[in-house]
Amino acid sequence: MILTVTLNTALDITYRVPRLRPHTGHRVTEVTERPGGKGINVARVLAALGHHTTVTGFAGGVTGTVVRELLAADEPARAPGRITDALVPIAGSTRRTLGVVDTASGDTTQLNEAGPAVTGAEWAAFMDAYARLLREASAVALCGSLPPGVPVGTYAQLIREARTAGVPTLLDTSGEPLRRGVAARPDIVKPNAEELAGLTGSTEPLRAARDARRRGARAVAASLGADGLLAITAQGAWRAVPPERLKGNPTGAGDAAVAGLLSGLVDEVPWPERIARAVALSAAAVRAPAAGEFDPAVYAELLGRIEVTEHPTAL
Amino acid sequence: MILTVTLNTALDITYRVPRLRPHTGHRVTEVTERPGGKGINVARVLAALGHHTTVTGFAGGVTGTVVRELLAADEPARAPGRITDALVPIAGSTRRTLGVVDTASGDTTQLNEAGPAVTGAEWAAFMDAYARLLREASAVALCGSLPPGVPVGTYAQLIREARTAGVPTLLDTSGEPLRRGVAARPDIVKPNAEELAGLTGSTEPLRAARDARRRGARAVAASLGADGLLAITAQGAWRAVPPERLKGNPTGAGDAAVAGLLSGLVDEVPWPERIARAVALSAAAVRAPAAGEFDPAVYAELLGRIEVTEHPTAL
């Protein structure tokens, strides 16, 4: 199975309102809830692709209960893959992340709670669970922000544990946790252009991705939004671009790309095919009406039309 | 005891953000939750005044569980009065109401979910509970909006039931439920200027309040924001005004006024004293740092300085 780690899981709530006007009252016309946090989003895409996936991280409070119930309820619809819930219970409450969609403009205003404090005992329980889960894992993805109180070097520690267990790692985070994580030599990092610039100080993606490799990442897959994905690896450098500019909701496109990279990693396909999967899944996610969903038929159609070019200057 | 009915209870959530900018992302710096809905807010003020109060209405889902837990946790701090939870369980989920406070400006953006659908069997269970609770009640307050699917004439029905049981009623709602309710001859209605204008078509409060009495209300206590409160009753007409313009958070001021009116009703004090209590409680609520709270010492001090004048032209 593929293991995804989401230390700061969330209950993703979406409100639709006719028009968001600050400092006035609004009636919410539609409420939807889904289990959230990057690693959980990645797991949902992996399951839809047919990969058995286990999610771990923390869940607590009534929001944590709802997250776990929604994960369990979601599962039967998620054939052919399966999601196994290995979230570690905590006393604090799982955070909510609220997206307020203005139905007039289609734009979203995002309000993210910080997340619960994690105690030392809870952290120890997680590390036990992580070590046990690594024994069954073909790859592990470390995704998203750290909850308050979790040490900033945590991803570096989790990457070292995975290497000791012989499990390849993908890191998708930002800021100081990314900087520390990269130094621990993960197999793949998947920053977007902004995260890459934050890590390296360079806003030129090719230069920045090469710098990220020098800092320790064995491969860098940089997602460049509508410009596709740039991969700098030990085997070579490639860029994959979507067949056309896609209109839609970019929420979840990055998580879909991570799922594509992981899928290609465990299926042991070459890098050009991995990044083609990532870009096709991203594009399919952008096109889907609900954030984080995708239509497998749209994915299959797009996959055949992704252009991958080798980047001779990159190494 | 005083009975308050809140058919559309809520989990009131407050988010603080440094500055609300539509269509961008925000980290929420502080999250607070409290049991909400007008009748529950009224009960909290009544309990702080020393009145034993029972809350009924509906509660369901995980949000309903949180509302009940917060009500129970709140109780010991609420001496000398006591709040008894007589909420009727339902299958649907109690709604959330979210206030997003922009800490730069102090302004609040409000997002209110609609509330759960109530089944026929749940409604029958509520009516049984209501009839039973009326036997112990010295007064009943019917507060706030109706959840989806509850008939618009519901407050009229609850007013008739209370009259049959010999229990005086106070109605605080808006729109068509207010119009139907007033026609059932409640003892007191407490509209604000906007609700009164919606009911009567007149934006002149004195004229509109007299019209509301002709439509069936035995007494009208119209809350006019910073201009205080206007009461048109069978015993006479009065206006009470706060001693000075108050700065603060107006959320909960209307519910505090309802508590003042009910307190005066069950203590059988004359109308000038009732509206003085209502205005002093409203003003104390505006001054309090947290929405819906008040400092008893501030209330006592303000109560001595409320000016009540008789309104000879009103009848």
Q: What string gives the helices and strands of chain A in order?
A: EEEEHEHEEEEHEHEHEHHEEEHHHE
**Any idea what the radius of gyration of chain A is?**
19 Å
Largest sheet of chain A: 11 strands, mixed
Helix coverage percent of residues of chain A?
25-40%
How much beta of chain A, percentage-wise?
A: 25-35%
Uncertain spans of chain A: none
The helix count of chain A comes to 10
CATH superfamily of chain A: Ribokinase
Mean pLDDT of chain A: 92
CATH architecture field of chain A: 3-Layer(aba) Sandwich
Q: What is the terminal separation of chain A in angstroms? A: 33 Å
CATH class division of chain A? Alpha Beta
In total, the number of domains of chain A comes to 1
From the helix content, strand content and strand pairing of chain A, which structural class follows?
alpha/beta
Total strands of chain A? 16
Shape of chain A from CA axes? globular
What does this structure look like?
The structure is a homodimer of 315-residue chains. Chain A is of the alpha/beta class and 315 residues long. Helix content of chain A is 37%, strand content 26%. Chain A has helices spanning 38-49, 61-74, 120-134, 154-164, 175-183, 193-200, 205-214, 253-266, 271-287, 296-303; strands at residues 2-6, 10-17, 25-27, 30-36, 53-60, 83-85, 88-90, 95-102, 108-112, 139-143, 169-172, 188-189, 219-223, 229-233, 236-241, 307-310. In chain A, strands 1, 5, 6, 7, 10, 11, 12, 13, 14, 15 and 16 form an eleven-stranded mixed sheet that branches. In chain A, strand 11 (169-172), helix 5 (175-183) and strand 12 (188-189) form a beta-alpha-beta unit. In chain A, helix 8 (253-266) packs antiparallel against helix 9 (271-287) and helix 9 (271-287) packs across helix 10. The longest helix of chain A has 17 residues, at 271-287. Chain A is globular. The model of chain A has no long low-confidence stretch (mean pLDDT 92). The A-B interface holds A 15, 17, 20-29, 31, 62-63, 65-66, 98, 100, 102, 105, 107-114 and B 15, 17, 20-29, 31, 62-63, 65-66, 98, 100, 102, 105, 107-114. Strand 9 of chain A pairs parallel with strand 3 of chain B, so a sheet runs across the interface.
